Amino acid sequence: MPGYLLHQGATVLCMHGGLAQPITTNFRVKVGGQMAITQSDMYSISGCPFTIGPAPSPCVTGQWVTAATRVKAGGMPVILQDSQATCVPNGTGLNIVITQMRVKGQ
């Protein structure tokens, strides 16, 4: 099923509401004037309020585990709106809230 490609300016949050920002290595392929995000790109997460009991255990980084099967940028699969990610250290996911709505991939 085709989905919209994720770009650097997209709004991405961890499941607890922390803001996730990409640390991208793609500097060539753009979507809507901003870099396309690939499966190798890490996300840095700030402001995650997650705790386990009284101990804080915020999401710190996020890594994509699923990506497009047919579209690549710089040899790496691009991230689609329905791609899945895992956050470290607690194993929850990332939530793509807003992304561009012009370019689709599969």
Observed structural traits:
106 residues; mainly beta; Tumour Suppressor Smad4; 6-stranded antiparallel β-sheet; two-stranded antiparallel sheet
Q: Any overview of this molecule?
A:
A 6-stranded antiparallel β-sheet has the order 12-9-6-3-2-13, with no helix packed on it. It has a two-stranded antiparallel ribbon with strand order 1-14. A two-stranded antiparallel sheet has the order 4-5. It is built from no helices and 14 strands. The protein has a single domain, classed as Sandwich (Tumour Suppressor Smad4). The chain has strands at 3-4, 11-14, 19-23, 30-31, 34-35, 42-46, 51-52, 55-56, 61-64, 72-73, 76-77, 85-88, 94-98, 104-105. The protein is mainly β and 106 residues long.
Strand order in space, largest sheet: 12-9-6-3-2-13
The outline comes out as: elongated
- Level of helix content? under 10%
Task: Round the mean pLDDT to the nearest integer and report it.
Answer: 95
Number of helical segments with 4 or more residues: 0
CATH architecture: Sandwich
* Element-level helix/strand string: EEEEEEEEEEEEEE
Please give the largest β-sheet: 6 strands, antiparallel
Topology:
Elements: E1 3-4, E2 11-14, E3 19-23, E4 30-31, E5 34-35, E6 42-46, E7 51-52, E8 55-56, E9 61-64, E10 72-73, E11 76-77, E12 85-88, E13 94-98, E14 104-105
Antiparallel strand pairs: 1-14, 2-3, 2-13, 3-6, 4-5, 6-9, 7-8, 9-12, 10-11
Short description:
Helices cover 0% and strands 41% of the residues. With 106 residues, the protein is mostly beta strands. Strands 12-9-6-3-2-13 form a 6-stranded antiparallel sheet, with no helix packed on it.
